[in-house]
Amino acid sequence: MTDIALLRDRILDLKEKKKAIILAHNYQREEVQDIADHTGDSLELSRIAASIDCRIIVFCGVHFMAESASILSPDKTVLLPEIKAGCPMADMITVSGPRNLKNYFPGFEYTRGYRYPAEFTLREIKKLHPGVPVVTYVNTTAEVKAESDICCTSANGVKIVESLNTDKVICVPDRNLSAWIAKNTKTEVIAWDGFCHVHDRVTADDVDKARRDHPNAVVLAHPECRMEVLEKADHVTSTSGMLRFAKSSPTKEFIIGTETGLMYGLRKQNPDKTFYSLRNDMVCPNMKKTSLQSVLHALETETYKIKVPEEIRVPSKRALDRMLEVK
Ligand code: 13P
Ligand code: SF4
Questions:
Q1: 232 vs 246: CA distance, rounded Å
Q2: What is the dihedral of CA 9, 10, 11, 14, to 10 degrees?
Q3: Which CATH class name applies to 90-198?
Q4: Chain-centroid distance, C-alpha 162
Q5: Is 87 within 8 Å of 51 (Cβ atoms)?
Q6: Any atom of ligand 2 within 6 Å of the Cβ of 139
Q7: Cα of 226 to ligand 1 centre, how many Å?
Q8: What does the alpha-carbon distance between residue 318 and residue 29 come to, in Å, rounded to a whole number?
Q9: CATH for 3-86+287-308?
């Protein structure tokens, strides 16, 4: 038996014994996606975490995802196999405390515009716009969710903002998703200056080059990409939205503007189609931290437990529940 097969067997055995369920985000390593009970985008995994019957959820993803699972299912043990698997964008905004983005990203430049610059905290922005609802991307900490009216994901941002029937919203933390929502709704969006370093690096020139290289391909882009990229894409959607689109489309070639982990699911589900990455360096190092070894370690030792204090969990659950109620 190979090492991988041995590891898989031990994981499956322990999973059964401990009544555990493994959830894996679409960006996870191939072998981790293969061992999972469910793979999906942030919205799908939140829905599963809220409804699934088990004792333990092993969340193969990044910290905010496991935190959301724990917020939605406080009676279950939620394990994050790699405690250092975080999302830099989620760590960019705080409720009130200071951050130092220059330490996080050496050379980071604030982009000025209609967005609030990154030194503003969520409470400061709320104070400047009393009564304006806060729509918070799930890529945030539980504390930020707890200060929000409703959450959204890349799959439902436009729908969530429209469901509020208001002229103005505050959207945090992703400047690109916020710009996409502003473009596709009649609502005024007060945005903030966060971004995903994996998606924000892609430029319009990258799209032009990929189209020159693959003239018959359809371009799919994640809303965390810059507007200059989204405007050139044929379809803008979440990771699972891309999986659905590629499966149902008669097209045979696709250029994929998101983290390269999605290529595995796309190729597996569509062996007759060809997928090219919009850029080969669209790799999220945090998503790649989880391995089969770490999943096994998580199950053996029941670490790392992700638990949110009740005073934060209850208001953050309200914001997540409101999102999940929007059909
Ligand atoms: P999805 O919800 O589209 O899977 O995206 C999550 C994420 O972290 C994107 O970078
Ligand atoms: Fe965060 Fe970007 Fe990684 Fe998604 S791809 S987890 S947004 S850093």
A1: 18
A2: 120
A3: alpha beta
A4: 21
A5: no
A6: yes
A7: 15
A8: 32
A9: 3.40.50.10800
Bond from prior residue into 104 cis (ω within 30 degrees of 0): no
- Sheet with 188-191: strands ordered across: 150-152, 134-137, 168-172, 188-191
φ, ψ (nearest 5 deg) of residue 270: -135, 70
Which ligand is closest to the CA of 151, given by its number?
Answer: 1
For the Cβ of 88 lying below 6 angstroms from any atom of ligand 2, the answer is: yes
The number of beta carbons lying within 10 Å of the beta carbon of residue 252 is: 13
201-229 tens-digit pLDDT: 999 999 999 999 999 999 999 999 999 99
- As a CATH number, domain 202-277 is 3.40.50.10800
What phi, psi does 68 have (nearest 5°)? -60, -40
Which atom of ligand 2 is the closest one to the Cα of 64?
Answer: 6
- 239 in contact with ligand 2, CB cutoff 6 A: no
pLDDT tens profile 101-138: 544 444 444 333 345 666 788 999 999 999 999 999 99
- The segment(s) of the chain belonging to CATH 3.40.50.10800 are 3-86+287-308, 90-198, 202-277
Give the Cα separation of 304 and 302 in Å (integer): 6
